[in-house]
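DM from R.C. (forwarded with permission)

"hey, sorry to bug you on a friday — could you get me a structure for this? deadline for the figure draft is monday and I only need the backbone to look sensible"
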Amino acid sequence: MKKLLGTVVFAAALMVGTVAQAAAINIIATRVGTSNIYNLTIETTLPVAAIGINVPTGTTFVINNAAVAPFGSGSSLGDAATAGLSSLNLNPLTCVGINCTPFATTPASTLIGTFTALNNTYNQLNPLITPDDDSVGGTAFNNILEPYDTLTQVALTTVPEPMTAVMLGLGLAALGVIRRKAA
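My reply, with the result:
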């Protein structure tokens, strides 16, 4: 039993460590209750001064972060390169030369703004946010507004993450049952 418990704890620690290191930049749209409203947050350990993502045409967005430039004064929401999508380009409010003040820099969640979607049918197969389709040349940008290269993992998520923890727990429980029956 102790060996099984040790194996499960080690596997859980390994999985949590892998999940925590899976992406350097997480851009997350989290649904507020059962409404058509989603909060857009960024979790990162890198300085993010701008993002470019796609949303379905007709989606509206309100900027809630004081470090993000207002629409028409640096940020924009307009036609994307792909039909049926709009390009949401959020830029920093403050830039001196080529150095801009990032609006996300720490591992904690940073609220950027709020989406209002046309309907509430967005899910893993039909996400609210998708990577930039080359409308602005990248999805996440550093403090000199260069896109992060392909080695930097950028993850976009439309649904809340608690389901990942549930699935991990069920998988570990199943592993425990299988190992217990085998012993």
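R.C.: lifesaver. The longest strand covers residues 37-44.
me: no worries. The radius of gyration is 19 Å.
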